[in-house]
Amino acid sequence: MSAPDRDVVVVGAGPAGCAAAVFAAREGLDVAVFDRGRSSLARCAHLENYPGFPAGIDVGTLSDLMRAQVERAGCALVDDLVESVERSGDDSDDSAESDGSAESADPDGPRLVVRPQEGDPVAARRVIAATRYDGEYLRGLGDDDAMFEVHDHGGETHEHFDREYADRDGTTPVDGLYVASPSEASRQAITAAGRGARVGKRVVADARIDAGWWPDAAEGVDWVRREAELDDEWADRDRWVEWFDEEHADGPVDPDSERFARVREAAVDDALSSYVDADEEAARAAAGRRALAGRLDPEAVVDAHGADALLDAMDDEAVAAHLAGDESDAERPDEASP
Ligand SMILES: Cc1cc2nc3c(=O)[nH]c(=O)nc-3n(C[C@H](O)[C@H](O)[C@H](O)COP(=O)(O)OP(=O)(O)OC[C@H]3O[C@@H](n4cnc5c(N)ncnc54)[C@H](O)[C@@H]3O)c2cc1C
């Protein structure tokens, strides 16, 4: 079987999909996020209960910020509507579909094929559904009776995606399919994001398990930590190796095996790479603020800070050039950014 085009395809760039995509991409997985169609987020007049925004946030700005974060994390954002998801090689054996037990012959091969409205089909190892309103594109992928539930509204029957079809970590009976939304968490933006994060972490752990990690070793945290908090003992790589050996001595993999050594190497690399020094912390803080400022309209910034504070923060030559009417000499803010 040929290699997949993507490790992960996420369907939907709302709070659930963006959170899932960021967690997966930060692990180094190759992620594409498809986004088009009916959005719950777009219908909010103003979001006032999402942490971090004291006066609330308009959904256009939040959406821009989330999409920028997804791209910065390394995902490809694709403006296209997903029409269906099929199992790779679906021509083969339909009998295995209902319980989702069919697997690709090659564990590294694609499991699913995502068919968008306009672009080419994309083969993926894993697909995360993150669309509060729409699960129709999943019809036929597994057991429809389990995936959809029928409701009776005033004598008329309607079918909805079953919000409890997936487990809390998004796993489903269909190999390679995860559902972040619709779920019970989809009714509020922040809980939708939390569910997306949980599903993204599940996908990361499962990708590691595919690569030879065992479940206890594969579960981790995505943290960025201060190097200054590493005391002398833990600054030494050997201490981490020792810790890993202690943690997994009684695990399912022989500590003397090549597999154990390979996973330990990757786990220790992962732990150590989460530490940043003070300069890096400051650089990331500055980049974070700059990215936020870039989404604000200049009038809002002047209003919030006052013209004097902004003029003080500006380069004198740029102000002088502006006053002289020679704006071409004044450095534009985006050019001034490294
Ligand atoms: C009127 C209204 C007001 C609300 N107000 C609030 C509020 O004040 N506070 C609050 O916490 N929550 C509020 N909500 C709920 C909030 O909008 C949802 O909880 C949240 O948006 C769910 O996020 P999600 O990522 O699961 O889905 P969505 O926000 O719906 O995001 C799904 C994304 O997937 C895309 N998509 C859909 N189908 C496809 C497809 N087939 N292929 C590709 N892309 C697709 C959509 O375009 C969309 O961008 C409100 C909802 C409504 C309707």
In short:
With 338 residues, this protein is α/β, with parallel strands linked by helices.
Structure report:
Residues 84-119 are annotated as: Disordered. There is one protein chain. The protein has 338 residues and is an alpha/beta fold. It folds into two domains: 6-88 and 109-211, FAD/NAD(P)-binding domain (3-Layer(bba) Sandwich), CATH 3.50.50.60; 216-278, no CATH class. Helices cover 39% and strands 16% of the residues. The protein is built from 13 helices and eleven strands. It has helices at residues 15-26, 59-72, 144-147, 189-210, 215-218, 232-235, 237-248, 258-273, 278-293, 298-305, 307-313, 316-323, 333-336, and strands at 6-11, 31-34, 76-78, 82-87, 112-116, 122-130, 148-153, 156-161, 177-181, 225-226, 275-276. Helix 1 runs parallel beside helix 2 and helix 1 (15-26) runs parallel beside helix 4. The longest helix has 22 residues, at 189-210. It starts with 5 loop residues before the first strand and ends with a helix. Residues 91-104 have low confidence and may be disordered. It binds flavin-adenine dinucleotide. Flavin-adenine dinucleotide is lined by residues 11-17, 34-41, 43-44, 47, 49, 81-82, 130-134, 137, 181, 186-190, 192.
Calculate the mean pLDDT score and round it.
91
> How many alpha or pi helices?
13
> What would the principal axes of the Cα set say about the shape?
globular
> Spans with pLDDT under 50 lasting ≥5 residues?
91-104
- Which kinds of small molecule does this entry bind, naming each only once? flavin-adenine dinucleotide
- Under CATH, the homologous superfamily of the largest domain reads FAD/NAD(P)-binding domain
